[in-house]
Protein 1
Amino acid sequence: MTLEETMIKMTFDRWNALLKQFNTALESLTDEQLQHEISPGRNRGIYLLGHLTAVHDSMVTLLDLGERLYPEMQEIFINKPDKSVPEIPSAADLRQKWQHVGNVLDEAFANMQPSDWFQKHTAVTAEDFAGEPYRNKLNIIVTRASHLAYHLGQFILIK
Amino acid sequence: MTLEETMIKMTFDRWNALLKQFNTALESLTDEQLQHEISPGRNRGIYLLGHLTAVHDSMVTLLDLGERLYPEMQEIFINKPDKSVPEIPSAADLRQKWQHVGNVLDEAFANMQPSDWFQKHTAVTAEDFAGEPYRNKLNIIVTRASHLAYHLGQFILIK
């Protein structure tokens, strides 16, 4: 196991464990429960599901894997806070989109070589990357895993 | 910047950013607010503060940096759930302990060399580590950063 492979394993063990925990929590909730707030006056489950779907969808472009699947979700679930958009996708629709984004990422990751993960992501210039090699593709997984953990801690509060 | 240094930077950028966010949230709360629950019927802020202090304290031994500072916190804040122990340390006491553990870790980390982070932690045998090099000290930071992010997402819900 090379040092690159070791670091990729460490990062993806976390990423995959968090996704598994999130999916277990998601499957345990009904569509009706997803309408509940994580805590009084805070985000609803359905908003967090849409938010995570939109953020993970944006990884497709950040990792240079193609085009975003649901660019329209950016406005509803990232730019705007919960309860500020009158009509949002249904829970059933968001469950499908969440799963689809996850599948697309998994398939693309399976085709990547270890060294690919240490190449620059698309939000950094080649010039900046030369001096800041940590702004690589693997770091997108590191930061999004942290983001996922943050919202997972909230998501499991839904009753 | 070597590959080792790149990975250490990626990991510690997350760890330090999460600690900073947590400390900002902690400073914004009064001792009285720390008695509030993150969501009705869930953990109180004071329990999460004690829990994170105890978990980070346990990193001292896992990373082979010495003895735990507050071993008695294991029982109250890790083994037992919130509201099951009649007497727990005060908010003021826990704030001090949290800061002390953070300082001890920071000082010890400053004395470590990049290659030290890729040595085994104390909860894996040399035999197992030979085939599982990802069970290294840096991975303790990776997993505890994920744990911190999870509880940070909850901690910021306290009003």
Protein 2
Amino acid sequence: MLKILPKIRRPVRCLSAVVAARNEGFAKVMQSDLLAFENFLGKDGVQKDDISNHITDWTGQFKGHGSVVLYPKSTEEVSAILAYCSRNKIAVVPQGGNTGLVGGSIPVHDEVVLSMNKINKQFSFDDTMGILQCDAGFILEELDNKLAKLGYMMPFDLGAKGSCQIGGNVATCAGGIRLIRYGSLHAHLLGLTVVLPDEQGSVLHLGSSIRKDNTSLHTPHLFLGSEGQLGVITSVTMTAVPKPRSVQSAMLGVESFKKCCEVLKLAKSSLSEVISSFEFLDADIMECLKSNLDLHPVLSKSTPFSILVETSGSNEDHDMEKMSAFLDECLSKNLILDGVLAGSSADAANMWKLRESAPLAVTRDGYVYKHDVSLPLENYYELTNVMKARCGDLAKRVVTYGHLGDGNTHLNITAGKRCEELEELMYPFLYEWVVAHGGSISAEHGIGQLKLPYSNLGKESEERLLTKKLKNIFDPNGILNPYKMI
Amino acid sequence: MLKILPKIRRPVRCLSAVVAARNEGFAKVMQSDLLAFENFLGKDGVQKDDISNHITDWTGQFKGHGSVVLYPKSTEEVSAILAYCSRNKIAVVPQGGNTGLVGGSIPVHDEVVLSMNKINKQFSFDDTMGILQCDAGFILEELDNKLAKLGYMMPFDLGAKGSCQIGGNVATCAGGIRLIRYGSLHAHLLGLTVVLPDEQGSVLHLGSSIRKDNTSLHTPHLFLGSEGQLGVITSVTMTAVPKPRSVQSAMLGVESFKKCCEVLKLAKSSLSEVISSFEFLDADIMECLKSNLDLHPVLSKSTPFSILVETSGSNEDHDMEKMSAFLDECLSKNLILDGVLAGSSADAANMWKLRESAPLAVTRDGYVYKHDVSLPLENYYELTNVMKARCGDLAKRVVTYGHLGDGNTHLNITAGKRCEELEELMYPFLYEWVVAHGGSISAEHGIGQLKLPYSNLGKESEERLLTKKLKNIFDPNGILNPYKMI
């Protein structure tokens, strides 16, 4: 038995500076282990040099340690590695595109990195039922491109689509901008091939490749959002959605947050089956876009809040008519101050550039504290106001953008440089406030290392105990992705 | 520790006649237990007489045994009962509307029936986010009626809607006729309150009441389709969908099954965001409807296959235009022999009456062997042909209807009366054929008692072991819904 991880002290800061101590129950990787890995994977499957891209996250916020990256090419090779590591108590971190924001896919101390980069051969698609089966290492954008030729698309989209992998998307239950239309990945997942970190490296084919199967516990769904704690996903079966023939975008200027919620309610009713995004930007992020990136609002008047609405449908005339009627109703009911319907794809691109550039714009202030939380709508924007008042002049900006249609806010607090005094004001206050107001401290990014100190906030002991018992069934030696989430 | 259940012999027949032996590790309910139950629930919470409706299923196919039905009124009362039963090794069967088709919600030997009928008080709905939170004992139709007043509806619909309860719908991952549009219940579930059958009667609040929450394992989804094996669901949080303002129906006559699949593909592309049903009837069920119920086809020509397509949308003109264009394209591509678009709600009702009366029509032949399986489309109708050839004159009819859009077929084989020779031809052949052809032996009805003898077909030992380990975490004494599913 391994030693139980030491209880992590409650940190002042929500930063990677707080790292759990190494679990001395884990073995260190020795020369004999490297030879064994080469035996399983061949010499080109074991990388010892130039691995910095695999032990550091892309934001540079998380700098981990490690000495080896493994590149299995098949489920069987993953099984061989996990069986070996389990028997030898070697900790392992599975890694997809390494595009996460919470430090979940890099080693903390000296875990072996199990890269999925070479598990990307098998792809099949049933274009009548819309069912995709593919290896876990496929990049999301590649899948989307393959499906586009067949009249379909992936049911979710995110900024990292050019690098993130479908296996990682499943492991993090990736959200993104289309969730209001197509639902979370739970709506689409049908089956998984997973390898367990047990002494046999057990290979499980869970779920099925058909749309309806009520013959067993629906275990594939337990892997959605499991952050590499339970097993390594090597293959995914899921539904895709018909590619829309018409995509319309509109930008609305709104006077109050209350009216933003009324616009959302009307959009869900009027745009019903065609709404595909409902994104939110406040005046402070618009100002930040202007001053830091010289990006100007598409609306002529400056308004306290902006909303970007998108529809996706099969008939352009119908979608334009619905969107126009929706805008007319917003105006006639005095819900909006201004509204523009994109007349061309260039117009639409300008609108989306504002929303998509927001994460970049904030970084130009110097230092940025990013957040990803969910809140009931009545508290959604109150958080911004509370944090503005609390941070005062220590913050350069307190800005908010996000997926309003999903209750997901990306509140960003910037400063000229990292500021401990500001951090002490923010944490744990912000997360405690979110939980006290019925929210979730992680909407779509997960827990990883970043939010581990707060992951028990508002969680009852019974649930925490259940989660640990579940982890123990799948990963009896606790070797998979330690120092994170569970 | 309880004794492990004896291995069930492989039966010749797929009927309730095959019953697992009583597990003698379970205690029998004594007078002292009844007094304890009355102590927890009051006298009116414990029913000992006239309980036949609770120990027999509605089809009369499953006749169980039992002496007491309990009616808790709250999560706390469920907790008190499960803690008591767990400590005293008394087996319990949770029961919702008792509308299932596989004998999953009735006691087999002498299990205590835990009825959810009185847990139906709390109902709340956020009509901006479309999030419903309600007690598990609410009847599906009641919820639908409440939501209709708020402009929303439940995202699934089934024949039993007037009796089935939302807790049971979750426990069976109910499917129905709108799955092609709104997805399975996995697409909608956000949170559950469940009581575990452990010695504390642990109450768990799993998931949350917001749309995005990536802070823990997504355990609520493990209860979807768990058939009362893991815990008792007392409260459900899920999304509802905007109520469509326009519903259009059309009936199509098709020459070959291959063309039915081409029509499906076209419908998914052309009707894309508005398609809400794609139902299938073959000529034999149409003939059965005519001869047994005097229900006549709405198409003038008799065709080998009929398809009922439904759209649900927010704009009647748009939906009519899409449906007309779809029918035109079907005709111009020679995919259909005939097609009728319902011009009124009476027309639509006539079309749906054919589909919805199919389960009744077959019973009029005398005896009916009902099936609910999923298959890849290339094998969907082959099963019907194979069973026709195999059953020959022993069968009165071999008819097929079902949710073609989901790959779900309800193959029904009728006879004048129960026929053992026919049963021996059918079972286990039919289920083995389904599994050998990439299908699932239960699409939406579940395993229960009916399909327990076949539940391991095609399942690998690793998955079966995992399922048992999971069951053991939630139900350490194995008292919940024994002799079924797991």
